[in-house]
Amino acid sequence: MLKVHAQIEGGNVWAPPVEDDEVVFMPHPHGGPETLWFNFVIENASAANAGKPLTLTLLNVNNMLGGWQPSNLRPVMAMDGGAFERLPAPEIETRPDGVVHARWCVQVPAKMLQVAVCYPYGQEELAQLAEALDWQVSVVGLSQAGRPMLRFCNRAGVKGEVAPAIYCVARQHSGETPGSWVLDGFLRRLHEMGPDAPMCWAVPLSNIDGVVSGDYGKDNFPYDLNRAWGLPAMRHETHCLKIDIQRWKQRCRTGVIVDFHAPGACEAEGLYTFVADPEQAPERHAVNLPFADAVQRHLGDMGAKEFSRVASYPSRWATPNLTAFGWDEHRLPALTFEVPYGLIGDQPLTIERYREAGRRMADGICEALRTLKA
């Protein structure tokens, strides 16, 4: 009487037919080499089953990116159209062959239960943000599948303007919804500042095709969006963003590019940033560090102890990412911020906590911009 499917915006799951009182599932790679994002619905065709125990079993956790500490996994669920809430720590099963599964005990819904690795953030949430901000929304280009790429801005500015400015991008890896929730709070904070806020342009759903399709999007083919920033651009979305950043840069004296991401599935140290290697790129490192330090101060206990990091993991792509493009082509500070999926320490992350992190980040970025201006 229970059916599992992913026919929703951002849907992603592999699941065999349900047997007894257990839903077994895994995140679907959707053509990419890495998995992490899942988002699916369990439908109940028999009201008589409602309220009975139901086990959710995530198979092969160690196949997921960052699945090395599965006790930190805290998916979210929404019962019968209600608000999403965090699940508790899972029961971990390590099988004799070393394969690791994670289990949660929930209840059979009256009609529908939605489960996701983190709070979904898609077109509906973006429309709510647009209504709250009342900023100008423009189409800066189309995705590979012909979907509009929307850019928010608090003011358009004029060519040759001397005001400081911020350019924000999120969801280059389409399943990294924590970055979207932090950007949501970031933009709301700038809105609260009114005319005192720096000029800000933001593309919240840059990989809109992956967002709608439910891709994880990390290193996805034909090209990872965040590795497509070379000359020429390897994705049409990146081509459009490059042109828009050029327009934005012509309208500000000093600026910073901020890119919102999420790390491995089980990381729980707090928010952190990647800065350029001080030995390999000392100038780029020097311009990024004041922004990293200011954000760390404002984040306080929401920031990881090791906050400013140098990316040392191997990449499948040799081409530049957004932050390298910001410096190489425009000599601008550009930073990537990583936002955990479920926890900071032992504290679960809620939507309001994500937004609070975004508000604190906005204060830190604005402080560093003022210092740079001075």
Q: Your description of this structure?
A:
The protein has 374 residues and is α/β, with parallel strands linked by helices. It has 2 domains: 2-116, Sandwich (Immunoglobulin-like); 123-373, Zn peptidases (Aminopeptidase), CATH 3.40.630. The protein has 7 helices and 19 strands. The chain has helices spanning 123-133, 177-193, 208-213, 236-249, 282-299, 322-330, 351-373, and strands at residues 2-5, 22-25, 39-44, 53-58, 76-79, 85-86, 91-94, 100-107, 112-116, 136-142, 148-153, 165-170, 199-203, 255-261, 271-274, 303-309, 334-338, 343-344, 347-348. It has an 8-stranded mixed β-sheet, sandwiched between helices. Strands 1-3-9-5-6 form a 5-stranded antiparallel β-sheet, with no helix packed on it. The protein has a 4-stranded mixed β-sheet with strand order 2-4-8-7, with no helix packed on it. A hairpin with a 5-residue loop joins strand 7 (91-94) and strand 8. Helix 5 crosses helix 7 (351-373). The longest helix is centred in the last third of the chain and has 23 residues, at 351-373. 50% of the residues are buried.
CATH topology of the largest domain: Aminopeptidase
Q: What is the count of β-strands?
A: 19
Q: What summary fits the major beta sheet? A: 8 strands, mixed
Number of helical elements: 7
Q: What general form does the structure show?
A: globular
Order of helices and strands: EEEEEEEEEHEEEHEHHEEHEHEEEH
Q: What's the helical proportion of residues?
A: 25-40%
Strand order of the largest sheet: 10-11-13-12-14-17-15-16
Just give the CATH class of the largest domain.
Alpha Beta
CATH superfamily caption of the largest domain = Zn peptidases
CATH architecture of the largest domain: 3-Layer(aba) Sandwich
Gyration radius over CA: 21 Å
> Which secondary-structure class do the elements indicate?
alpha/beta
How far the N terminus sits from the C terminus, by CA atoms, comes to 66 Å
Instruction: Outline the low-pLDDT stretches.
Output: none
Measured by DSSP, the beta-strand proportion falls in 25-35%
Mean pLDDT: 95
The number of domains: 2
